[in-house]
Amino acid sequence: MTPLRVLVVDDEPVATRRLSALLGAFSEVRDCASALGARDALALADAFRPNVVLLDIEMPGLNGLELAQHLIREDPVAIIFVTAFSQYAVEAFGLAAADYLLKPVDAARLRAALSRARERLEARTAAADLQALHAALAALRAREAERDGANALWIAEGGARQRVVIDAIVWVEAERDYIRLHTRQRSHLVRGSITDLARKLPQEEFVRVRRSALVRVACIERIECRGDRRYLIITSSGATIRVGRSHIATLRQLLARAVSAARASG
Fold it and tell me: Are 184 and 221 in contact (CB under 8 A)?
């Protein structure tokens, strides 16, 4: 019988502690380790060499679906996805994974998932699982693109593909050969030009405030004049953005339209 070395990956400490406690009661689990998110998991995986991974799907940065591709390599690894959502993720990835668990996980269901994982390990189907995972990930991306339409961007970041919802973008700035997308939670640095990105964004929702910066109109909290025609935009996320001199006229037009709309609605 194959002894199990289980790695628990979740960005919520409470979830990792609970799963680790459940695993500690199973005699078939020889070793157990936990990682808070994808970055910790990648750092730990090479040394710990798990043969079973309990993997949360929804995590910031590199999500569980993409992390699984990095974890399934030469050594056979059985992936058990853990999710609070029983919708598309389970449907799309149930066949690619050894099993999936819905939160909150109970002991009996976890034991059954481990039993199925061991069967896969002993059948050494890791290579087939990886191919299925790649196919399932492609299917999910196509499904999300169809569902979201033009409301999301897939960007290359950290050796993986990251989905950024356009509605979450507060502002964008150019950094030489890269662009940085700022959301309320974090920023994403990706290779590309701000001109190309501007074509993908809704024209009526973003305003160019200098050659190297775009701001979502709805996120402009206030505009300050610091003298000598120096204007600054303060966003609802707290960011302070300098306005280029050649874009002050555009900004004034934007303010005039906003005032007119406010008077009309009042």
Answer: no
Q: How far apart are CA 131 and CA 67, in angstroms?
A: 14
Residue 158: CB atoms within 10 Å: 14
Q: Which residues pair with 189 in a beta bridge?
A: 180
CB 85 within 8 A of CB 100: no
Residue 113 to residue 101: CA distance in whole angstroms: 8
Question: For residues 238 and 235, what is the distance between their CA atoms, to the nearest angstrom?
Answer: 5
The pLDDT tens digits of the residues spanning 73-126 come to 656 788 888 877 655 455 545 546 778 888 889 999 999 999 988 888 877 655
What is the rounded CA–CA span in Å between residue 210 and residue 241? 9
Could you tell me the sign of the dihedral formed by the alpha carbons of 28, 34, 38, 44, in that order? negative
Domains belonging to the chain, first-starting first, are: 4-145 (3.40.50.2300), 152-265 (2.40.50.1020)
Residue in the block written with tokens 């194959």:
2
Residue 139 tokens read as 């299917």
Report pTM: 0.50
Which residues make beta-bridge pairs with 155?
A: 162
